[in-house]
């Protein structure tokens, strides 16, 4: 009878001992690994190729021949004796990594002492490693403690004032997972921006969020669709991305050089294709064009220019630009509308203002040099939806996007300057209008016929040249598919989004409906042909 009990007990233990999880009775030792049930991710001990430092516990792609790590537990405390590490999930529902001397190198600190026997640590299909209570509640997840990688379904907060979700921190070198000086995350001074820092200095900045909920990216040759979504969780905003079912492995990293990259695995070439990289090589680095200068991506090769009403202050843009005519404050000033702009940094976020109130806010303050407004409708569950930004003093890190994204920046200038600029506009406007009408007609036609119009791409701009597998001379005169698809196509395709790419089904489902609305209101989604270039701002 006792023997029978033992057998039953043993077989129960065996069932629990599937290899995607740890239990208090089954720690992980050097040489062992966990594999997610879909076989995509593995967790175990590793030593980077040329590392002499020691070994680490990490998560990598199990099905990709080129070893690629997406998460590291003890990045700053390697195990010096590679054969001695042990990762345990304790009866207190904590993960503890220790060496042979019993020193703790890394641990979660849940201190969950309510006798939760049956706790396990599970490597999920998404690559998320979670501590799971017997009642299926997850009390800790690696997705909340990223290293340098964001996987589909992970969330990057636009604000970092809670310690739950921390910044991405780059590896120190190709073989050294230790934390480096490059980090990336929400800018807690504004709650609206994502910034890459080099130490404490900004290295690159994403424009202030304008309320757009979704941006989709589509590659017609492979059917690959990726959406970037801004989700509202308890009044806080998080960026997240998903890919369509059957897509290649896709990840987003802060490279050890400080570059932020979007990569997709190419199984044909057995390498990672970089299809978006920030900062762009040109003038995209933080404040590169100086005060009142801006990085103009509408140029074939993006370069610094002065904002209208300004002229270079010196031989190049290292000192930025100066006003042609001083402001008078009061009646003598007007606002000039600059469209398609990446809004500058160092704004003051004024809450609860209408557009007119926002303008008044700027007009009535002699120190105010510009303002921008977005109503952020449906972007937030909070009642305060409008976003009024005003700038006091110099405008730094401004840009102009080439593809029609970006927002209006209302720049304060002496009225006489504005008059002169608007004379130029009077000539330019009819030309712009006819181009717009033509564009609308073509778009409507494309949507209707859903045909795949082929256009000649004269020059693939710099984003394309960054693709590791593309040579810039090949891209000249190459035929690509017209980079637009119709809304219905996106909806059809997004129905196929796999579950495991979504974190928290309920919450995401709701957001997803909003996403559809947003798409509908735009009618068309900007999507991309070969090489996957993209909107400068809307993507990270
Ligand atoms: C490791 O070091 C060797 C020799 O120093 C070098 O040839 C090789 O490229 C390095 N591997 C990696 C992945 O850096
Ligand atoms: C490394 O750990 C193994 C197993 O615990 C032990 O036998 C060995 O002596 C250790 N080596 C060193 C240098 O501490
Ligand atoms: C965890 O709890 C089980 C059952 O209560 C016990 O047998 C085991 O020794 C405990 N493990 C540790 C490390 O305390
Ligand atoms: C868990 O306990 C440790 C030490 O006792 C403490 O430093 C840590 O803050 C506690 N963690 C939580 C989440 O309470
Ligand atoms: C699961 O169990 C923990 C502790 O026993 C408890 O705090 C939590 O509320 C439970 N969750 C659910 C969904 O029952
Ligand atoms: C980051 O800062 C360090 C020192 O402050 C500097 O040497 C390095 O060039 C910077 N990196 C980049 C990419 O600008
Ligand atoms: C994958 O790589 C091959 C060979 O370099 C290339 O021909 C192909 O276009 C790439 N696929 C994608 C989707 O980029
Ligand atoms: C701008 O000019 C200054 C002085 O002439 C020079 O030191 C600096 O390197 C130049 N910067 C660029 C980006 O050309
Ligand atoms: C927002 O502004 C309106 C009037 O402009 C005012 O009635 C309302 O109380 C304000 N709401 C908040 C939350 O400040
Ligand atoms: C915002 O929500 C309202 C109703 O909740 C809806 O009528 C409107 O179309 C939505 N606007 C956008 C841009 O999605």
From TrEMBL:
EC number: 2.7.11.1
Catalytic reaction annotation: L-seryl-[protein] + ATP = O-phospho-L-seryl-[protein] + ADP + H(+); L-threonyl-[protein] + ATP = O-phospho-L-threonyl-[protein] + ADP + H(+)
CDD domains the UniProt entry points to: B_lectin, PAN_AP_plant
Family matches, as PROSITE patterns: BULB_LECTIN, PAN
Signal sequence bounds: 1-18
GO biological process, alphabetically ordered: recognition of pollen; response to other organism
Domain Bulb-type lectin residue range list: 19-144
Keywords: Disulfide bond, Membrane, Receptor, Signal, Transmembrane, Transmembrane helix
A single GO molecular function term of this UniProt record: protein serine/threonine kinase activity
Pfam families hit by this protein: B_lectin, PAN_2, S_locus_glycop
Subcellular location per the Swiss-Prot or TrEMBL entry: Membrane
Membrane association type: Single-pass type I membrane protein
Annotated TM spans: 427-447
Record domain Apple: where: 329-414
Domain of life where this protein originates: Eukaryota
SUPFAM superfamilies recorded: alpha-D-mannose-specific plant lectins, Protein kinase-like (PK-like)
GO CC field: membrane
Protein name: non-specific serine/threonine protein kinase
């Amino acid at each position: 009878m006792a023997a029978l009990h033992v057998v039953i007990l043993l077989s129960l233990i065996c069932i629990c001992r599937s290899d995607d999880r740890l239990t208090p009775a089954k720690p992980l030792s050097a040489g062992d690994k966990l594999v997610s049930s879909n076989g995509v991710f593995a967790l175990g001990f590793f030593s980077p190729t040329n590392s002499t430092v020691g070994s680490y516990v990490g998560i990598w792609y199990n099905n990709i021949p080129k070893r690629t790590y997406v998460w590291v537990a003890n990045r700053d405390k390697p195990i010096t004796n590679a054969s001695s590490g042990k990762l345990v999930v304790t009866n207190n529902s904590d993960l503890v990594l220790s060496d042979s001397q019993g020193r703790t190198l890394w641990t979660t600190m849940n201190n969950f002492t309510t006798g939760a026997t049956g706790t396990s640590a599970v490597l999920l299909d998404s690559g998320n490693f979670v501590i799971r209570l017997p009642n299926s509640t997850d009390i800790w997840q690696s997705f909340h403690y990223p290293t340098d990688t964001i996987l589909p379904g992970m969330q990057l907060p636009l604000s970092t004032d809670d310690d739950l979700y921390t910044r991405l921190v780059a590896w120190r070198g190709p073989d050294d997972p230790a934390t480096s000086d490059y980090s990336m995350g929400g800018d807690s001074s504004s709650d609206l921006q994502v910034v890459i820092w080099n130490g404490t200095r900004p290295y690159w900045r994403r424009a202030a969020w304008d309320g757009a909920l979704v941006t989709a990216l589509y590659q017609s040759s492979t059917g690959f669709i990726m959406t970037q979504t801004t989700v509202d969780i308890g009044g806080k905003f998080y960026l997240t991305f998903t890919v369509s079912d059957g897509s290649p492995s896709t990840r987003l990293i802060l490279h050890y050089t400080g570059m932020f990259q979007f990569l997709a695995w190419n199984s044909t070439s057995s390498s990672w294709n970089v299809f978006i990289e920030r900062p762009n090589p040109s003038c995209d680095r933080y404040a590169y064009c100086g005060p009142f200068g801006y990085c103009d991506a509408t140029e074939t090769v993006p370069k610094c220019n002065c904002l209208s009403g300004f002229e270079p202050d010196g031989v190049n843009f290292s000192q930025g630009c100066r006003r042609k005519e001083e402001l008078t404050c009061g009646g003598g000033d007007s606002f000039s509308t600059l469209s398609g702009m990446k809004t500058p940094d160092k704004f003051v976020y004024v809450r609860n203002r209408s557009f007119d109130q926002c303008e008044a806010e700027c007009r009535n303050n002699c120190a105010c040099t510009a303002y921008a407004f977005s109503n952020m409708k449906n972007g937030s569950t909070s009642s305060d939806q409008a976003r009024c930004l005003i700038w006091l003093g110099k405008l730094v890190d401004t840009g102009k996007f080439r593809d029609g994204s970006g927002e209006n920046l209302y720049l304060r200038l002496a009225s006489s300057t504005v008059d002169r600029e608007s004379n130029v506009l009077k000539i330019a406007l009819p030309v712009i209008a006819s181009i717009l009408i033509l564009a609308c007609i073509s778009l409507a036609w494309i949507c209707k016929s859903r045909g795949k119009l082929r256009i000649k791409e004269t020059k693939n701009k710099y984003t394309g040249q960054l693709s590791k597998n593309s040579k810039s001379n090949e891209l000249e005169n190459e035929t690509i598919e017209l980079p637009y698809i119709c809304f219905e196509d996106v909806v059809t395709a997004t129905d196929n989004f796999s579950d495991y790419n979504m974190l928290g089904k309920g919450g995401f489902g709701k957001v997803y409906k909003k996403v559809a609305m947003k798409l509908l209101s735009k009618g068309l989604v900007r999507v991309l042909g070969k090489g996957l270039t993209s909107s400068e701002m809307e993507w990270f």
